[in-house]
């Protein structure tokens, strides 16, 4: 999935930015619950700490954005969550939006992610198939027709102006089905990398290391060295 999302990101930005994909070496194939998000969040912070000094921005490429707020507190560079970027983009493109995803297990988690953005009053819900597919690698092929049907239902029955295709297994599907859905269809990874590029330009002269709301410097035990160093200094400069 990382390779696919990296390819989409590169196709989206072209020569305007370099995409450096990094995959967690432990954790879950996808996140579908609060507990999984909590576990993934610590890993995300470790990965950002390891690379923060060599990149201009970070995209957390997991729908649900584990540790997004904590990462923004800790690191002095733009950090974009895939889900938040998709929701914010949807809010700019239409009056209402819905999420279409590949598993009913995602419903509550995705609903919470949307509510956390403050845009719940414009949200038309999460549409999913009845069961979770057995193989994530085949989701786009096996569920392609169902995704189109659910997206159409979201537009025609739930009156969503914009459809977000939620979850890494659906990355890259949006442009393939856009002409078959009577609404705007958003690919979250494309939305995220474009927002990351915009934020890099907007914060080029910002005094982010001087933020008054940075966490206090603190010692730690047993953390990965780059993350421990970031926390020890009360946040890491880019």
TrEMBL record:
Gene Ontology molecular function terms on file: amino-acid racemase activity
Top-level taxon of the source organism: Bacteria
Secreted as UniProt keyword: no
Isomerase in keyword set: yes
EC number from the UniProt entry: 5.1.99.-
Database matches in InterPro entries: Asp/Glu/hydantoin_racemase, Hydantoin_racemase-like, Iso_Racemase_Enz_sf
UniProt keyword list: Isomerase
Gene3D superfamilies from the UniProt entry: 3.40.50.12500
Family annotation (Pfam families): Asp_Glu_race
Similarity-based family: Belongs to the HyuE racemase family.
Name assigned to this protein: Putative hydantoin racemase
